[in-house]
Amino acid sequence: MQAYKSSQQRNALICASSQGLGLAVANRLAEDGHNLFLVARNEERLAKVKQELEEAHKVQVHTYVCDLNVASQRTKLLEALLALWPAGPDILVHNTGGPTPSTVLDTEYVQWTHGFNSLFLSVVQINQALVPLMVERGWGRVVTVTSLAAKEPLTHLAVSNALRSGISAYSKTLATEVASSGVTVNCVAPGYIQTERLKHLFHYRAEQAGTTPLQAQRQIEQNIPAQRIGKASEFAHAVSFLCSEGNSYMTGQTLVVDGGLQKSTF
Q1: How many independent structural domains does the chain possess?
Q2: Do the beta carbons of residue 143 and residue 188 sit within 8 Å?
Q3: How far apart are CA 108 and CA 38, in angstroms?
Q4: Positive or negative torsion for Cα 48, 7, 92, 259
Q5: Is residue 265 one of the residues assigned to a domain?
Q6: What three-state secondary structure class fits 11?
Q7: What is the pLDDT of residues 110-153, one digit of tens each?
Q8: 81 Rama sector, left if φ>0, alpha if ψ -120 to 50, beta otherwise
Q9: 225: which of 1, 49, 177, 218 is 20 to 30 A away, CA to CA?
Q10: DSSP characters over 67-91
Q11: Are residues 16 and 42 in the same domain?
């Protein structure tokens, strides 16, 4: 698929971008011609990604080591970002690691508070600092990576089910407030996409059911109309469109990328 080349080079902040879905998005936005500010906890992995992207796409790639679960580190991240780009990024992609699988009754209180800080408050804090700059500039793209759980609760994902839907509601509210300023705010909800986290989920479900990870995967694939697990690159194409100049009218949406798994039409 052809990249959504912009008429001008944009600056993009991508959170949790050293592996998995975040890395796939970074690759795609670099292919689109944008400069990147990549955030992750693993300094060595970030350095490798930076080198590979700069060599492959001839764009500027900046990196910052940060644990997005820690509010004070998010504050320092924002300071470093604005020192580099005083006007803020044009594109903001939120992404965080998913909570540990659990049922509602097995989830401890500390898991709920940790999930709320990681999945919800991290998005709020970063948006609060950067979205006003987009509004002032008259152009911006905010995309939050959530989960199919935001639309339909998934088995053993109690924290994600509750908080991802909250992020969709928050993003919809923000979208309506800034839509007239040229800023779009959307969520992208992946179904089962090939990542390390998905492998852990297969292992967890296999343990619960007394089967093997491969059997757990096959069972899930049987329920997906596409009959397969999705590729991270396929997910990144959706994010790329939402971040493009071509998407100037689609806002306040949660776009599902799941091979047809979602049952409802809403």
Answers
A1: 2
A2: yes
A3: 32
A4: negative
A5: no
A6: strand
A7: 999 999 999 999 999 999 999 999 999 999 999 999 999 999 99
A8: alpha
A9: 1
A10: -TT-HHHHHHHHHHHHHH-TT--SE
A11: yes
Same domain, 96 and 199: no
Tokens representing residue 174 in the block? 């923000």
pTM of the model as a whole: 0.93
Cα 204 to Cα 219: distance, rounded to the nearest angstrom: 14
Percentage of the chain surpassing pLDDT 90? 82
Do 222 and 239 sit in the same domain of this protein? no
CA atoms of 240 and 2, how far apart (whole Å): 11
CA distance 248 to 1: 20
Q: Are residues 55 and 180 in the same domain?
A: yes
Indicate if 166 and 34 belong to the same structural domain: yes
Residue corresponding to tokens 């490798």 = 48
DSSP string, 139-163: -EEEEEE--GGGTS--TTBHHHHHH
